[in-house]
Amino acid sequence: MSIFKKIMTAIRGGASEVGEAIVDSNATRIFEQEIRDSENHLTKAKRDLTGVMAQQMAASRDVDRLKREVTEHEGYAVQALEKGDETLALAVAEKISTLESELSAQQQALDSFSGNADRLKELVKKSERQVSEYKRQLSMVKTTESVQKATSAITDNFSSSNSKLLNAKDSLERIKAKQQKFDDRMKAAELLESENSDNSLEAQLKEAGIGASSNSANSVLDRLKAKQK
Amino acid sequence: MNIHNIANHLNALADNSDTGMVFDCQPISGEVDVLQVTVIDREELPIFVSVTDDQILCITYLWGSEEVKSDRVHEMHESMLEMNIPMPLSSFSKIGDKYVIFGALSINSTFSDIEHELGVLNNNAIEIIDDMSDYLI
Q1: Tell me, what DSSP letter sits at residue A213?
Q2: What ipTM score was computed for the predicted complex, to two decimals?
Q3: Which of A16, A69, A154, B80 is the residue whose CA sits 20 to 30 A from A114?
């Protein structure tokens, strides 16, 4: 059964009841041990791969060298033949034959190392996928359990503090009302601010002698003088 | 990352958060440590944060099954599924008989990621209750 199905069955089956575990803790521990084992295998496989790849590189260098030497000696043999020196050509040909058998042995070794390296690379990739898959599954089990435990902690906390989770619509109304109150306060503050700035403008105008003149003693006196005339 | 680090960070933020929200943190003790994060002026929709081996879970309870109009449950589920991808960072789930909205973060997230997540989750929660209120009693 897939881990998804297991979790679903457990939740549906009422394992969401406080204290009941999705997968018993012993199974979780075994699973964790399996992951650690796989990781150890992976480390070993990677080490092996490094060794094989080093051998592969050495063999590949030897193959290249031998191929070069064969070509080189073939040149010598041709030159010897051109000079009519049959004996020398034969000696070179013998050398070429030795080189060629050496080359074929090295080529075989190289093929085998390459095959090994490819196989190990596949193995490493497969193990890596396996480990990350195990980890994902373990994470799902642990998260489900954690959420259940968290839920019971939250529920306990709510029942002990005598408060309860509100109905969703009521919560929304309350939040909106608070937001409205906040907006109203902001608006009122803005209004007040603008009134204050009006006042200060008026004061500035007055100071500059613009706008409604104040009833200063002088202006009263002027008015009375005007009446006398 | 654990809930105490997160609580310390959020409490220290005070008015300097990037989200314009002020957070209040209250640890809840139990078998698993849970941090109750409330956004000031939105105390009705607390966020519960818990930390596991590889992720940080932030959950807000939306409504209970009993709050859903019984003849519109199916329609509501459809709407919630359809909204799941467009809704930034958060997803829907159900814990017991409660519908929840949640966000999961990597354990390697920064404080700023967490702060952002909490802000977005809280806004999503309010908006989704508003949008789904037709289906609710």
Answers
A1: P
A2: 0.82
A3: A69
